[in-house]
Amino acid sequence: MSFFPSASEGSLRERLQRSLGDAYVITRELGGGGSARVFLATEVALERAVVLKVLPTELADGVDGTRFHREILIAARLQHPHLVPLLSAREPVPGEPNGAAAATASTLRWYAMPFVEGETLREHLTRRGALPLPEALRLLRELASALAYAHAKGVVHRDIKPENILLSDGVAMISDFGVAKALEEASADAVSSGRRLTTVGMVLGTPAYMAPEQVSNARVVDHKADLYAFACVAYEMLTGAPPFVRASLRATMSAQVSATPTPLAQLRQEVPSPLADLLMRCLEKDPLQRPLSATAVVKVLDGLAAPPAAPSLAAPESPAPQARTPLPVWLGALVVVLLVAAGWWMLK
Asked: Which residues are catalytic?
């Protein structure tokens, strides 16, 4: 579902290019952006390809441009091999009004990320279905390590889903980390009253992967929501489908709040029981019943990636060779005498 008013691609592209000035040159629009419009562009100064994501009007009109830019720059400090870094955001033109009261329909808010060659996890799953267990374990370990790093920095994603996971040469990278926090902190509602913008969670969340507390618009949505979404993605990687998808969005969101997922062990018996149990704990409706952190998830996955070596069966020790005792001298002399006597007898 698009949150943009019906307008031709050309009009938005032209408006965006005017907003960019000479810093970026738009190449084309990319698909699969969800609620945002996504464009491929060239950053002129560094001659590199970047992705520009333009916020929906409903969000852009309520965002303080200066604060949003500042928050994106804070999120850009996240540096991890399995995170797609944020590069920058639209910095308001001098003299441009900010805030919901002064926003106009022409306001554009965007942020930039590096262009990553590869495909999304969604495309990968669509093509292949449930993944082989070794590949799934490796990808989950990479994603969990990125979550652990970002959460330790106080940043929650709030929209973990296959579309926001990129695979470059088979390596997983999470995109859009820090955007939800930037939007919340920069929303006029948050700035003026200290409250969170409730629509942000709905726009950035995706029903098939949203934690129950996001569905019910809880005032506090922390890193436990990311663990829930991570488990939904893992469930899909291992079985071919998320745990709570229903015929409609309303039914899906209702299932997130009240339905019990089918145990992983029933759907794919080869999944190691420590992993199956861990993911089912991540899918608990009550955040307090989920693992304490993504670090706990990493530890379980590390244990599965490097199973203890089976004890080797030691070969039975061969008895030490017995030292040969030399023949006594008298016995040797007796043998010589007997041989001589035998020879004399045969000559008779």
From this structure: 159
Domain containing residue 270? 12-305
16, burial (CB in 10 Å: exposed 0-12, middle 13-18, buried 19+): buried
- Whether 123 maps to a domain, the answer reads yes
Which pLDDT does position 345 carry in this prediction? 44
**pTM for this one?**
0.78
Q: Which tokens in the block code for residue 246? A: 């229903």
| pLDDT, block means (10 residues), the chain with 348 residues | 43 88 93 76 95 82 81 89 90 51 58 93 96 96 98 93 95 92 72 50 71 89 96 98 94 95 94 96 97 96 69 50 50 48 49
Tokens of 202: 């709905």
State how many domains the chain has: 1
Cα 328 from Cα 116, distance rounded (Å): 87
CATH of the domain at 194: 1.10.510.10
- With respect to residue 325, please indicate whether it lies within any of the assigned structural domains: no
Identify whether 329 is part of a domain.
Answer: no
In a domain, 332, yes or no: no
Q: What is the DSSP letter of 193?
A: H
Distance, CA of 228 to CA of 296 (rounded, Å): 14
Look at residue 42 and give its three-state secondary structure.
Answer: strand
